[in-house]
Amino acid sequence: MAELKGRDLLSLADLTSEEVTALLQLAAQLKSGQLKPQCNKVLGLLFYKASTRTRVSFTVAMYQLGGQVIDLNTTTTQVSRGEPVEDTARVLDRYLDILSIRTFEQQQLETFAHYAKIPVINALTDREHPCQILADLLTVEECFGKLKGLTLTYVGDGNNVAHSLLLGCALVGMNVKIATPADFKPLTEIVEQAKAIALPETEIIVTEDPEAAAKGSHVIYTDVWASMGQESEADSRIPIFQPYQANEQLLSLADPEAIVLHCLPAHRGEEITTDVIEGSHSKVWDQAENRMHAQKALLASLLGIGD
């Protein structure tokens, strides 16, 4: 993975199909213990949004690689007092080897990456969640032994997860169907970008019909109906999104061996029912664990560990 050394990951579209495949292979080797690269590097976590899985998985992944982690709490740094992004980026560049940022605006992430020479990782923005989708693809590959030709159906809000699923599935040759209410579709520019980078014969569909989207699908995927920063809209969204719930009826339309994924945290009884998330088709906990393995592969590649 020498070609990734020193690069940023701001979007899954920053990667080629071959690079995604190589990252997933490396993640599987790291998970199995087949490879145990070690480093003496420092990862900074600059999170403007709350986090459980992303924070812990990045921290454990870096520790297991032999590195150190600094949690840059935005409430106790000068960021909270309005220090310009470009100033913070240039200072952190002098201290750290790599930086993972979880924030609201994609533009803020891109500004950090512009002013910092070290690799910058998108740990979630309102536009994309690339690290989550690397873990998702690793989970699907573990379950089916392949990715190309499978179909993933996402139901719910056309949010950052939906955006990154469009791009990630396109890159690995998975068909992807996004079913959302009319006013909550993914960004048209992301859909078009996914179509532009998709492998041949890959099907990319955006629809308002969740049942049609779920038919024959190998993966049923959902996320919360109101993302961070949209909490005030949560109650008003429930009746709009109710037809897009991941429940037994929707799952019955999918392939008999279909798996269920959710990036968490989950609101049982809203976007997913308890019997589905706790059922035999659920791979949600494997998916959550794989955040650590996928991000370990990403950190090792961007830092050039093992070269």
From TrEMBL:
Pfam families: OTCace (PF00185), OTCace_N (PF02729). Residues 7-142 form the Aspartate/ornithine carbamoyltransferase carbamoyl-P binding domain. Carbamoyl phosphate binds at residues 51-54, 78, 102, 129-132, 263-264, 291. Its EC number is 2.1.3.3. It catalyses: carbamoyl phosphate + L-ornithine = L-citrulline + phosphate + H(+). Gene3D superfamilies: Aspartate/ornithine carbamoyltransferase. One of its GO terms (biological process) is L-arginine biosynthetic process via ornithine. InterPro entries: Asp/Orn_carbamoyltranf_P-bd, Asp/Orn_carbamoylTrfase, Asp/Orn_carbamoylTrfase_sf, Asp_carbamoyltransf_Asp/Orn-bd, Orn/put_carbamltrans, OTCase_ArgI. Keywords: Amino-acid biosynthesis, Arginine biosynthesis, Cytoplasm, Transferase. Residues 148-301 form the Aspartate/ornithine carbamoyltransferase Asp/Orn-binding domain. It comes from the Bacteria. One of its GO terms (cellular component) is cytoplasm. The keyword Nucleotide-binding does not apply. Its main location: cytoplasm. It is found in: Cytoplasm. This is Ornithine carbamoyltransferase. It comes from Scytonema millei VB511283.
